Amino acid sequence: MIRDITLGQYYPAESFLHSMDPRSKIVLTFTFILSLFLAKGAPGYGVAFLFLVLAIRASKVPPRFMLKGLKAVFMIILLTVFINLFLTPGGAVLFQWGVFKVTRTGLETAVFMALRLIFLIVGSSILTLTTSPISLTDGIEALLKPWEKVKVPAHEIAMMMTIALRFIPILLEETDKIMKAQMARGADFESGGLVKKAQSLIPLLVPLFISSFRRADDLALAMEARCYRGGEGRTRMKRLSYTRVDVAAALVVAAYLLALGLLARWL
After folding, report:
1. pTM of this prediction?
2. 109-146, pLDDT tens digit by residue?
3. Which of 91, 102, 111, 142: disulfide with 95, CB 3.0–4.6 Å?
4. Whether residue 225 is found in the same domain as residue 249
5. Is 48 in contact with 119 (CB distance < 8 Å)?
6. Who's near 29: CB < 8 A, 6+ residues apart?
7. Same-domain status, 127 and 21
8. Do 244 and 230 reside in the same domain of the chain?
9. Is residue 147 part of a domain?
10. Where are the extended beta strands (E) located within 48-189?
């Protein structure tokens, strides 16, 4: 399951989304995430689903590779469904067992919240899967550039965010190696209830933290050895520029938002 997390990974390919300017992809991704909170009812989520399918096809990333990232957050989605299913009042009662009851409003809310989480995770994964770390850093820095007038360290923030994203798959791979090493020595991470499984993961934390600090120290030494001094005076081999591809993507997102707005008004 640890290897199934796709957030933070980059999938090299030649596609419509890979050729876009990273600034456009960041802005449009956040626009899509915000639009999920505006979608209402089955028609609204249906439009969001069609838009997401179009984005996945345009990325040329295998759908199986993209959707397998949902396995790692399955418990979070299941917990969200459970909470909304049994704790949301209103509407006709569909099922009742003791103090637990499922209402029509609770069922609809649970389904829509699960879809919202799934769409949010897949939409965020598309950004990192189609954008290289260097491009992502440059895009975030360019978007934060205007804030430098009020002493906001745009380059440093962009660098930290990108390093944090890139460390996700590295740390997950390290966790997988530690788990396999401990299982070879007789550790059991599968049997028992939820509490026992959580307790069995505690021995992973110490070696994982040690490995994380060691990697962070190695990264700092490597950056110092290459005379890294932040964004001041830094040049780029490739300059960011908007193209027709970015304009076309913006028009598609605008049409998607218009469709959501019309559906929200009619409903």
Report:
1. 0.75
2. 888 888 998 999 888 889 888 988 888 888 888 888 88
3. 102
4. no
5. yes
6. 123, 124, 126, 127
7. yes
8. no
9. no
10. 93-97, 100-103
Instruction: Compute φ and ψ for 4, nearest 5 degrees.
Output: -80, -10
Distance in angstroms (rounded) separating the CA atoms of residues 261 and 267: 10
Q: Which two tokens stand for residue 18?
A: 């890979």
* All residues at 6 or more sequence positions from 109 whose CB lies less than 8 Å from its CB, including other chains: 84, 85, 88
Instruction: Assess whether 225 and 109 both reside in one domain.
Output: no
Shared-domain flag, residues 49 and 114:
yes
Task: Report yes or no on 204 lying in a domain.
Answer: yes
Residues 120 and 114: their CA atoms lie apart, in Å, by 10
At 46-58, the pLDDT tens digits run 999 999 999 999 9
Pick from 18, 64, 54: nearest CA to 255: 54
What amino acid occupies position 153? P
Structural domain boundaries enclosing 190: 153-234
State the first-to-last Cα distance of the chain, in angstroms, to the nearest integer.
40
